[in-house]
Design goal:
The complex is a heterodimer of chains A (309) and B (253). Chain A is an alpha/beta fold. Helices cover 34% and strands 28% of the residues of chain A. Chain A folds into 2 domains: 220 residues, Rossmann fold, CATH 3.40.50.300; 67 residues, Alpha-Beta Plaits, CATH 3.30.70. The longest helix of chain B has 32 residues. The chains are: A alpha/beta (309), B mainly alpha (253).
């Protein structure tokens, strides 16, 4: 697939000397969904703002569809839709007019059929004549999405799209994102909700303190860094890990009712058979056995804390 | 040029105006009527003609200027400050538009509103005094230029302002005194000689003088000078806005 967004050695320093981006390079393929994960203040929003033209980069270059965001800003920006993190909307204007304004601002001729379609998909059509201030928080966020989609972007930035959104709406939004991807739109989303990245992304990028720590296929990342846990539930609780089992490096579960064993999925020998034999030999009676795959969240926390160490 | 964007901004801004049409209409009519009652009837009855025109009629151009200047400034400054305040500025900055298109949209709308108010006042004034406009084309030209140039100034103030207090500061502390001291309600020939000279540094004097000339054919300063002054002021504002968008001053981090 061809590269639609290319970021090369992008740096941003603010007047007070704070370096928000320390040479970020990133290529995004057309049609993929990239999730950018990172703690607060990692530079996610700065990165998006710089690509979209809201902040000016100190150095480095960005091209969108081959168009430089500085020298060919019209062509570059026309391709980008942005759903910002903060809910910023003109409170007294109606939903439809607000969305129509966005389309016009991007130089696209009026197309009410398209806007109707977008508003219907986002369950906003019934509210089209309502003033923005009359809408709930979740509805307002949908209006932001509708505005970004109104000018038919090829690249869509979703900055923390699920912040303050209930589960139902989050699921709806994921559905919309999937449909967009199917229509060929490239999506870059930043999120705190790892489950969001896990549910939607093709690739995951981790950013911390203005640097990209890694960008990888989600499945590769999970496989490479994924650890599995085996929890052995006991019929009788124990106060400590029995000496006979010390070599397995176990953790004691809650209330001593279980023993937890962590192993590498990819290892040739997981050590499970030996463990279970040893558990039986130690005179413990198994009630149940549970296995868990570590989530992206665990991987993420490991990465960011590892970087901090 | 992204004309669709210009039209979109213009329409969006005008929609704000139409939402509050009653207020936009009533307040200038009311204040103009008050000025006529106080200046025209109460004080004017004791003043003879000024430069061959009844005092009531004499103050009409000044009154219109007073309103269009303040309206132009407040409309344009609010128009661009509001997106900054509520945070919708992100969209403007990320849109494929250049500064000229943004200015055309915002300033065009602000100037249109100011012009509308100017016409409303002119019509209201007709109810109180007899008016004949000697140079109607020049009158329209001065009106348009004044509306545009002070909307440009308002636009700059709106970008400069960091809060609502600052938004009021320039109009209140600088513009209103300049208008009142610019000969809105008197001919500067009525001032002591020293003040006549000082007044010539007030740009508003040239606007009001030129505008009044288009009504009555008499002026405090030559009409050509008035036009030159307003052209100079407009280009000064345009240059400032050009610089603002090039550097992103108070717009882009």
């Amino acid at each position: 697939m061809s590269t639609i967004l290319s970021i090369s050695d992008l740096r941003k320093s603010y007047a007070d000397g704070f370096e928000a981006l320390k040479g970020v390079s990133l290529d995004i393929a057309e049609g993929e969904i990239l999730a950018l994960l990172g703690p607060n203040g990692a530079g996610k929003t700065t990165l998006i703002s710089t690509v979209c033209g809201i902040t000016t980069a100190t150095s480095g270059s960005v091209t969108v569809g081959g168009h430089c965001i500085k020298t060919d800003f019209r062509a570059a920006r026309s391709m980008i839709g942005l759903v910002p993190q903060e809910i910023n909307l003109e409170p007294f204007e109606t939903v439809l007019n607000t969305v129509r304004f966005s389309r016009g601002l991007f130089g696209k001729p009026r197309n009410d059929a398209l806007l109707e379609d977008i508003l219907k998909k986002l369950s906003l059509w019934d509210k089209r004549d309502n003033q923005i201030k009359e809408l709930s928080g979740g509805m307002k966020r949908r209006v932001l999405i509708a505005k970004a989609l109104s000018h038919e972007p090829r690249v869509l930035f979703l900055d923390e799209p699920s912040a303050g959104v209930d589960v139902e709406l989050r699921k709806d939004m994921w559905e919309v994102v999937r449909e967009l991807r199917e229509s060929g739109v490239t999506i870059i989303l930043t999120t705190h909700y790892i489950e969001e990245a896990e549910a939607m992304a093709d690739r995951v990028g981790v950013i911390a303190r203005g640097e990209i720590l890694l960008v990888e296929e989600k499945s590769d990342l999970m496989a490479r860094m994924g650890k599995k846990e085996l929890e052995v539930l006991l019929t009788e609780p124990v106060t400590a890990v029995p000496d006979a089992l010390k070599m397995h490096d176990l953790r004691l579960g809650e209330g001593g009712r279980s023993l937890i064993y962590t192993y590498d999925v990819k290892a040739e020998r997981t050590g499970i058979t030996t463990l279970l034999n040893d558990v039986a030999a130690a005179g413990l009676v198994l009630a149940d056995v549970v296995t868990r795959q570590s989530s992206l969240e665990d991987i993420f926390v490991d990465l960011v804390s590892g970087e901090a160490a | 040029m992204n004309w669709i964007a210009v039209a979109s901004i213009y329409r969006f801004e005008m929609a704000r105006f139409f939402r509050t049409l009653a207020q936009s209409f009533i307040s200038p009519v009311l204040s103009t009527s008050l000025y006529f009652v106080v200046f025209g009837a109460a004080i004017g009855s004791r003043i003879d003609q000024v430069e061959g025109v009844s005092y009531g009629a004499f103050i009409v151009p000044g009154l219109i200027m007073l309103s269009v200047i303040t309206q132009g400034i407040s409309n344009a400054s609010f128009g661009i400050y509001f997106p900054k305040f509520i945070g919708t500025m992100y969209e403007l900055l990320s849109a494929p538009v250049n500064f000229l298109e943004i200015v055309l949209g915002y300033v065009g709308a602000a100037a249109t509103k100011a012009m509308f108010i100017g016409v409303v006042i002119l019509v209201t004034a007709h109810l109180f005094v007899d008016l004949t406009i000697q140079h109607p084309l020049a009158m329209v030209l001065f009106l348009v230029l004044t509306c545009v140039s002070f909307s440009l100034l308002g636009f700059i103030i709106g970008i400069w302002a960091k809060n609502f207090e600052q938004l009021q500061l320039v109009p209140l502390l600088i513009v209103t005194p300049l208008i009142f001291l610019g000969g809105s309600f008197y001919s500067i020939s009525m001032l002591p000689p020293v003040w006549q000279t000082i007044t010539l540094f007030n740009p508003v004097v040239y606007l009001i003088s030129g505008f009044r000339w288009s009504f009555f054919g008499t002026a405090d300063v030559p009409v050509g000078l008035s036009l030159l002054a307003i052209a100079f002021f407009t280009s000064l504002c345009l240059a400032a806005i050009g610089w603002i968008f090039r550097t992103g001053w108070r717009l882009r981090a």
